Amino acid sequence: MSARRIVLYFLAFGILWILGSDHLLALITSDVATLSALQSVKGLAFVGLSALLILVLGRLAERRHQRLQDETNRQRERLAHILEVTPAVLYTLKPHPTDPGQWTVDFVSQNVEDMTGHAPEVWAARHDFWQRHLHPEDLPRVLAAQARLAGCDTLHHEYRIRHADGSYRWVDDRLRLLRGADGRPLLLTGAWLDITDRKCAEQAIQASESRYHELFEVNPLPMWVFDLGTLRFMAVNEAAIAKYGYSREEFLSMSIEDIRPAEDVEHLRRTVNIHRQDGGYGYSGEWQHVRKDGTRFWVEITGHTLLRDGRPARLVLAQDITDRRQAEERSRLISQVFEATEEGIFITDAQNRFVSINRTFSRITGYSPEEVLGQTPALLKSGRQNRAFYAELWKQLNTEGRWEGEIWNRNKAGEVYPEWLAINAIKDERGQLQQFLGIFTETSSRKSAEERILRLANHDSLTDLPNRALLADRARVVLATARHQHLPVVLMHLNLDHFSAINESLGHEAGDQVLRELALRLTRCLEPEDTLCRLGGDDFILLLPGTAVGDVAQISVRLMDAVAQPFAVAGQDLRLSASIGAAEFPENGSDLTELSQAAESAVHLAKREGRNTVRVASRRLQEQVQETLALARDLRWVVERRELVLHYQAQLDTRSERVVGLEALVRWQHPQRGLVPPGRFIPIAEESGLIQEIGRWVLDEALRQMAAWRAAGLPVVPVAINLSVSQFRHPRLPEDVAEALRRHDLPAHLLELELTESVAMEDSDFTIARIAALKQLGVTLSIDDFGTGYSSLSYLKRFTVDKLKIDQSFVRGLAQSPQDEAIVATVINLARSLGLHTIAEGVETAEQLDFLRRHGCDEVQGFHFHRPAPAEAVAGLLSSETL
User: Fold this and answer.
1) Which of 308, 491, 612, 836 would disulfide-bridge 577, Cβ 3.0–4.6 Å?
2) Where is the GGDEF domain positioned along the sequence (predicted)?
3) Structural domains counted in the chain
4) For residue 576, is it within any domain?
């Protein structure tokens, strides 16, 4: 009860008492003495009654106040309980007393410490504590949002706050601004909610969507999602579009029944019903599918049931197993023939141990597979044939790869029986023995067995084309007929360009698929009397009787067109090219060996001249092949016989024309042929594997000569040595270089190693590591013939090389070809921007020197200054005033 109400009650009581008591006393008595006594009693009664009234009113007020206090306490406890259980952090802010633009913490709930690691007292201590803990990336955005609060009175935004442990937590912040009657801000109330888990979930969803893109859209195998209710496609990836021939729009208007043969639709529907009931991930079997062009192929289906756009759907992956099915079918047929034939068949390994037998073998010999496998045919020896018989058998088998005749064997029961046995040696494409195939039978069934063996022995297992052995048989007949009737014959060698990249990037299965398809295409380009043979790898031989060299161009066009058609492999359309070499009988050879060598030489010429082209062999080319073989034989002894010599060509500073370096050039002093230039024998050395030995000799001899000049008191300059591909990739190259420098007591800066551009770009990661290892030795490194290949500038800047050498093919065109001038100027500028020196080789005229000098080339070498010379002549150069 309020004080005002108590006063009013007391006034009312007092007035009523005074007026009522006086009137009552007047009615009781008129005696003055009695009236005076009653007035005193009345006064005392008034005081007592007033005190009683005040007591009653006070007690009523206290009780009401206590009820209010109790309700307040209950509300406060309820609010405290709410604050304890709510995940949100509640807070109020009030304007800063001295800076109205800032806010200070008025109240913050205790759970702020759970969210941020900082107690409420810490938050209240500094008005900028909140701002100092915002994530730097969020700060500008949050401050801009806070500035807008003055105009809209409410704000909802999300940002990151730094926890006491240094991590960041995402908060959802909702604020409301309370204003006074004059419109000025009075209080800011807000709530924080920790949404870190939600943000992590969102990021996980984004990552999941990214993985979905990688696993679905970029998957090389066809994938799609279809509606389990309507069977309509909901999504397809690029591999499915490429494999089936439909566009994405066409797919999305179709159902999965449209890619199945009509006879499979009912089976498909039953399978889908199972997926509707069971769901989950599982294998869906092997099915025939139909492309847009109507062709059929086999696929293996796996799938997973999921929800997409709220509807049950199935994610499907399809793997083309057509080749596997065909191989399995062939294997099944072969197995059936193997087991069902009336002939006994056995296969042994190269050590003549049984690895497989058929049922007829067991029926005739009485031995089960378990008793035979791992044993040798000596298990069946009867003793009727002597040692000379078996020696002749093995002699013929080893020399001719085949033996056939009658032999007596003994079965498990000890009975001796005769059989007509044919044994064939099975070799791989390199001629290495793999297995022996034996068939023993009655005479009436021998012919069919021979035909099957011949098929195995004379055809390529991958493409089913004739192999080298069958080609040789047919070539003998064709060439004999051509020689007798004076008819032309052409032998062509076809080799795919960059085929190894397919095996390396897509796998050997993809490469095999290309070869099988190519064999079919090439076969369609030929006449029935022609022979197409696969030698191995990606090499094919075509034997064309009745074809003259004048017809090669037309035939080659057909062949190269067949190669150029896209190959659908692993969900991709591959486009290939081929290099072809042709040789004519008898101009380029009188037998298969000579024709093959001539055609192979022509193929190599086609490769060197840019690939995807045709070259025809000549007698001169064949003679070069023979000369190359002779050089290769002599080259094996060149180091031992001390036939190698080094010549040195000076390298000069472009400005001063002073000698600043030498390049060591190896020469071969052949006892019969005289001085053989490196361009003639270095490629042979690389091909034959002798380049390592020659390279080590060049390194050691160049350093030995420098040490000798140095010991003689001559001023020495760095010497440059070319490294071949195999030298550069040899694992011990850094150790060999370091050992040679130690052996001749020379500082590493006097040695420069030149790498060709193709070597440097062949395997960038390896090159970076190898160059770093060489640079640690202190030697100088340069890239030779720069600009003749294709350089990756992103890798070039990572190579710690010192110098770029401009190829003489560009230098030769200076002052004549604007294109060569532009290339040379670009290389010089590129080197300068990368902090590299440049040297131009093959400088032969003053005009070339002037151009190089004007454009800032650092060094030059060439006939304009000095020709390569032996060490004795170079010693005079080093001691002259030129240096």
Assistant:
1) 612
2) 487-619
3) 6
4) yes
Q: What is the pTM of this model?
A: 0.40
Q: Nearest to residue 582, comparing CAs of 623, 624, 542?
A: 542
Nearest C-alpha neighbor of 713 from the set 480, 484, 879: 879
Q: Which position has the higher pLDDT, 875 or 22?
A: 875
Kindly report whether the peptide bond that precedes residue 586 is cis, defined as omega within 30 degrees of 0: yes
Q: What does the DSSP 8-state code read for residue 590? A: S
Least confident of 168-172, 761-765, 827-831: 761-765
Which CA distances in Å does 862 have to 648, 696, 719, 819, 848?
A: 11, 26, 15, 21, 11
Whichever domain contains 228, its CATH number is 3.30.450.20
Same domain, 728 and 855: yes
What is the DSSP secondary-structure string of 407-473? Answer: EEEE-TTS-EEEEEEEEEEEE-TT--EEEEEEEEE-GGGHHHHHHHHHHHHHB-TTT--B-HHHHHH
| 3-state SS string for 780-826 | EEEEEEECCCCCCHHHHCCCCCCEEEECHHHHCCCCCCHHHHHHHHH
List the end-to-end C-alpha distance of the chain, in Å, as a whole number.
119
Q: Is residue 18 part of a domain?
A: yes
pLDDT in tens, 380-435: 898 888 888 999 999 999 899 999 988 888 888 888 888 888 999 988 888 888 89
Which residues, in sequence order, are CB contacts of 194 under 8 Å at separation 6+? 87, 115, 169, 170, 171
Three-class SS of residue 26? helix
Q: What is the pLDDT of residue 447?
A: 43
Last residue of a domain, one of 458, 478, 500: 458
- Phi, psi (5° rounding) for residue 359? -65, -35
State the Cα–Cα distance between residues 680 and 628, nearest whole angstrom.
Answer: 9
Q: Which helix (H) or strand (E) holds 585?
A: strand 578-585
Say whether both 545 and 497 belong to one domain: yes
Provide the pLDDT for residue 130.
83
- Per-residue pLDDT, 76: 62
Q: Are residues 76 and 104 in the same domain?
A: no
Residue 625: pLDDT band (50, 70, 90) is: very low
Structure-block tokens of residue 820: 């060569």
The residue written with tokens 């075509």 in the block is 542
Query: Are 575 and 472 spatial neighbours (Cβ–Cβ below 8 Å)?
Result: no
Could you tell me what percent of the chain has a pLDDT over 90? Answer: 34
Residues 18 and 156 both lie in one domain: no
Residue 515 tokens, joined: 């070869």
Q: Report how far residue 435's alpha carbon sits from residue 70's, in angstroms, rounded to the nearest whole number.
A: 103
Asked if the structure places residue 212 within a domain, the reply is: no
Q: Which amino acid is at 585?
A: F
Element housing 687 (H / E)? helix 678-688
User: Are residues 530 and 657 part of one domain?
Assistant: no
Helix (H) or strand (E) holding 156: strand 154-162
pLDDT digits (tens, 9 = 90+) for 288-300: 999 999 999 999 9
Instruction: Please return the burial class of 793, using the count of CB atoms within 10 Å of its CB with bins 0-12, 13-18 and 19+.
Output: exposed
Query: Which of residues 282, 305, 320 is at a domain's end?
Result: 320
Q: Which H or E run contains 260? A: none
Q: What is the pLDDT of residue 190?
A: 86
- Predicted local confidence at residue 281, as pLDDT: 66
Rounded to 5°, the CA angle 538-629-636 comes to 110
Q: In Å, how far are 441, 668, 860 from 842, measured between CA atoms?
A: 75, 21, 8
Domain, as residue range, for 156 = 86-200
Q: How far apart are CA 161 and CA 302, in angstroms?
A: 46
CB 868 within 8 A of CB 644: no
Convert the pLDDT of each residue in 487-545 to its tens digit. Answer: 999 999 999 998 888 888 888 899 999 999 999 999 999 999 999 999 888 999 999 99
Tell me, what's the pLDDT at 424?
92
* Residues 580 and 613 reside in one and the same domain: yes
Please indicate, yes or no, if residue 627 is contained in any of the structural domains.
no
